[in-house]
């Protein structure tokens, strides 16, 4: 019989299924309290792909809106403006998106917070979702457009005093636009203008890949300094198992027949994932799907992990298609990657020398040199600047995937 599968690979995890990140949640709760108290604060969540940035940002959104209480039991009532950026977004596009989403959020909040609709006529010049600005953007200088946005935010914060705790802007996928989009300058200037106007019940929260820090710095040297930084690391082993347990609890609340999992099966999911939340969801989803007797064991985990349509293949397509599936044509390339992966797992830098690779692979010297050159030219391995013959993989998540495929296949026999 079909069963509800509670695990959500590649999707944002709802707060009720959220596990770990206790330190980050406590700090973010304190930031919300500071904004409510009239001390504007801004934060930036960054880390590798699949590490849980969007889920953490969504958790903040739910707490700020009052959907769930904070860890200390406080229930907040923020006006939350949430948006995502795209690679094609320009400076104007970002300002329009913020203004448009502010307009939509305020109007939707009228019924919730009993705000007077007539008070928001000034926001009409921002069309819904920020798709289009009423004046000709090509004739409007960037700082003038931003100044209008700052004025509107100030008026919203002032008009909602007593009705809401403050206004919080949450921007996901902040790494996508290039440095030329000016996101760093925009956030820096906007925060300063609002502070100078005495608008302190205002906060910015951004999330993106680690490269977002340098991208924003290129736009404005001091932009990263206005944010409290949250660098997400993989979940700890007990937190990984907590993710699985929460999923099973949700499944058992919806399905007519209970599903259990052995301790060894949970530990294998935790081990294969190396603590990456989206990896945990993928392995757990596939194990749950392969289970046929409502008791997930090691065989179900391995069956769901390897082979056609399994978790490793799904993760490869979702996260590493350009690195592994499309650009690697030779077994020698894969041997080099497998030799390099352990260094990335043991050390945050993960640098290895050609000599170390040579000692791990059984390849003729010419074949090894050609493989390294091909991988480097395809940006699948990263050379160390200023050092000859030293390389690393592009991310720890990629190293987890490379080593995990081989480990799971060996265990599956």
From the structure above, extract its key features:
3 domains, globular, Helicase, Ruva Protein, domain 3, three-stranded antiparallel beta sheet, 413 residues, Arc Repressor Mutant, subunit A, Rossmann fold
Question: Could you characterize what this model shows?
Answer:
- With 413 residues, the protein is α/β, with parallel strands linked by helices.
- It folds into 3 domains: 211 residues, Rossmann fold (3-Layer(aba) Sandwich); 80 residues, Helicase, Ruva Protein, domain 3; 84 residues, Arc Repressor Mutant, subunit A.
- Helix content is 51%, strand content 11%.
- The chain is built from 16 helices and 10 strands.
- The strands form 3 sheets. The protein has a 5-stranded parallel β-sheet, sandwiched between helices. Strands 8-10-9 form a 3-stranded antiparallel β-sheet. A two-stranded parallel sheet has the order 6-7.
- β9 and β10 form a beta hairpin.
**From the 3D coordinates, which CATH architecture of the largest domain would you assign?**
3-Layer(aba) Sandwich
Query: Radius of gyration over alpha carbons?
Result: 24 Å
Strand proportion: 5-15%
Helicity, in percent? Answer: 40-55%
CATH fold category name of the largest domain = Rossmann fold
CATH class term of the largest domain: Alpha Beta
Overall geometric form: globular
Strand order of the largest sheet: 2-3-4-1-5
Write down the secondary-structure element order. Answer: HEHEHHEHEHEHEHHEHHHHEHHEEH
Question: What structural class is derived from the secondary structure elements?
Answer: alpha/beta
Provide the number of structural domains: 3
**Tally of strands:** 10
Cα distance, first to last residue?
29 Å
Count of helical regions:
16
């Amino acid at each position: 019989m079909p069963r509800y599968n509670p695990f959500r690979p590649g999707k944002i995890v709802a707060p009720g299924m959220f596990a770990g990140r206790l330190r980050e949640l406590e700090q973010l709760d304190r930031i919300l309290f500071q904004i409510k108290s009239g001390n504007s604060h801004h934060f930036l969540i960054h880390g590798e792909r699949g590490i849980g940035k969007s889920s953490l940002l969504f958790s903040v959104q739910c707490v700020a809106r009052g959907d769930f209480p904070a860890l200390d039991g406080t229930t907040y009532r923020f006006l939350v403006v949430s948006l995502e950026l795209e690679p094609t977004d320009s400076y104007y596009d970002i300002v329009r998106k913020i203004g448009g989403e502010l307009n939509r959020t305020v109007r939707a909040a009228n019924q919730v917070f009993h705000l007077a609709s007539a008070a928001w006529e000034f926001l009409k010049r921002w069309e819904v979702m920020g798709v289009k600005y009423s004046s000709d953007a090509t004739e409007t200088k960037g700082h003038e457009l931003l100044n209008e946005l700052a004025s509107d935010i100030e008026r919203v914060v002032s008009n909602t005093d007593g009705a809401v705790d403050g206004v919080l802007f949450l921007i996901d996928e902040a790494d996508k636009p290039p440095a030329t989009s000016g996101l760093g300058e925009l956030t820096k200037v906007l925060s300063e203008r609002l502070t100078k106007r005495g608008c302190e019940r205002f906060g910015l929260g951004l999330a993106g890949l680690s490269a977002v820090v340098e991208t924003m710095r290129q736009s404005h040297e001091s932009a990263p300094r206005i944010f409290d930084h949250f660098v997400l690391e993989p979940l700890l082993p007990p937190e990984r198992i907590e993710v699985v347990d929460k999923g099973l609890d949700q499944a058992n609340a919806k399905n007519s027949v209970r599903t259990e999992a052995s301790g060894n099966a949970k530990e294998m999911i935790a081990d294969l994932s190396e603590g990456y939340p989206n990896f945990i969801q993928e392995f757990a989803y596939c194990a749950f799907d392969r289970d046929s007797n409502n008791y997930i064991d090691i065989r179900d985990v391995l069956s769901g992990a390897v082979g056609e349509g399994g978790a490793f293949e799904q993760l490869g397509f979702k996260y590493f298609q350009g690195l592994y599936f499309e650009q690697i044509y030779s077994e020698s390339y894969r041997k080099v990657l497998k030799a390099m992966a352990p260094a990335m797992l043991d050390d945050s830098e993960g640098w290895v020398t050609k000599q170390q690779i040579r000692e791990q692979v059984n390849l003729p010297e010419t074949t090894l040199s050609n493989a390294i050159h091909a991988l480097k030219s395809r940006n699948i391995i990263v050379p160390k600047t200023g050092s000859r013959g030293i390389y690393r993989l592009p991310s720890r998540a990629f190293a987890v995937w490379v080593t995990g495929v081989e480990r799971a296949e060996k265990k599956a026999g």
